[in-house]
């Protein structure tokens, strides 16, 4: 087995570092700087994030523990695409019965999620994302999806943007728009993701309602910037659109990287279904392993470079 396994879901890619295989390139406690280096697309293996797990031996009836890290080294509570990839990894490498549709649970710092591999050949996985928690705001559009008018620096149409904030394992900010393009995402994405009202950042979804069964979504993640797809972002977009009565309970979410199917049950529970696949198994060079080892478990600087 190599130092990592790389998976992708709709172009959103993660490195899986498995501590069950013995010593890892990140030790037993991934340092933020080491995660950042490993995810760097020029200096490391390159990815939108990192999945560190399983933390215990996977077995039926017991939740599989997982830690999720963003590409900037910060820890993440939940990732819809990350859960899809990790579920496939467990089915392909550990528990055979999980390959045939038996539901099992993955536990992350953001909570527990039930997952189910519905087609191991196509890499199709269903994920129960749980209930969305809508933030209070200045206006109400029904279903608890309050809106807030956010002032941004500058004049013109971007001086104020109407958003809906919610939490789905991680924070999300949804912007409904009649049109979506890359320029809009690059212009407003970072301004909203790191607005003073979100000191720890938020993931931003720009949403266009195509019809009552289809949403077009572009995502700016607080840690990775523009990404081709986001599983939890798709769920956040569907939750807001459903709460406002713009779509039905089952919706196709189209993103630059591809589509996922999202369902919002009568009790508000959100689930998504989409595909993922293994890309490669990687072996790191000795020089990179040495550089990763310089990072202490709690330091944000390599041990040999502190004070520079």
From TrEMBL:
Keywords: Amino-acid biosynthesis, Cytoplasm, Isomerase, Lysine biosynthesis
Marked site positions, Could be important to modulate the pK values of the two catalytic cysteine residues: 172, 221
EC number: 5.1.1.7
Subunit structure: Homodimer.
Alphabetical list of PANTHER family matching this protein: DIAMINOPIMELATE EPIMERASE, DIAMINOPIMELATE EPIMERASE, CHLOROPLASTIC
Role of this protein: Catalyzes the stereoinversion of LL-2,6-diaminopimelate (L,L-DAP) to meso-diaminopimelate (meso-DAP), a precursor of L-lysine and an essential component of the bacterial peptidoglycan.
Name of the molecule in the record: Diaminopimelate epimerase
Annotated organism of origin: Streptomyces paromomycinus
């Amino acid at each position: 087995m190599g130092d990592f396994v790389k998976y992708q879901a709709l172009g959103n890619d993660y490195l899986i570092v498995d501590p069950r295989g013995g010593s890892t390139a990140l030790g037993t406690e991934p340092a933020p700087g080491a995660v950042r280096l490993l995810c760097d697309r020029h200096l490391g293996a390159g990815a939108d994030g990192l999945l560190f797990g399983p933390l215990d031996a996977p077995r039926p009836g017991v939740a599989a523990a997982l830690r999720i890290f963003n590409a900037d080294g910060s820890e993440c509570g939940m990732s819809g695409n990350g859960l899809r990839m990790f579920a496939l990894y467990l089915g392909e490498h550990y528990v055979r019965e999980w390959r045939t549709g038996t539901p099992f649970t993955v536990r992350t710092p953001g909570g527990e999620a039930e997952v189910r591999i519905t087609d191991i050949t196509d890499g199709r996985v269903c994920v129960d994302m749980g209930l969305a928690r809508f933030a209070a705001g200045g206006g109400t559009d029904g279903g608890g999806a309050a809106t807030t008018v956010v002032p941004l620096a500058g004049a013109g149409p971007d001086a104020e943007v109407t958003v809906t904030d919610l939490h789905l394992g991680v924070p999300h900010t949804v912007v409904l728009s009649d049109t979506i393009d890359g320029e809009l995402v690059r212009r407003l994405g970072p301004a909203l993701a790191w607005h003073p009202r979100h000191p720890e950042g938020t993931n931003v979804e720009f949403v266009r309602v195509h019809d009552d069964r289809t949403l077009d979504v572009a995502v700016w993640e607080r840690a990775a910037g523009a990404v081709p797809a986001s599983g939890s972002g798709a769920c956040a977009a569907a939750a807001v659109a459903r709460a406002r009565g713009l779509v039905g309970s089952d919706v196709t979410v189209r993103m630059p990287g591809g589509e996922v199917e999202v369902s919002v049950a009568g009790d508000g529970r959100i689930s998504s279904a989409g595909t993922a696949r293994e890309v490669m198994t990687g072996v790191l060079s000795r020089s990179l392993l040495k550089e990763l080892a310089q990072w202490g478990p709690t330091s944000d600087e390599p041990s040999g470079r502190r004070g520079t």
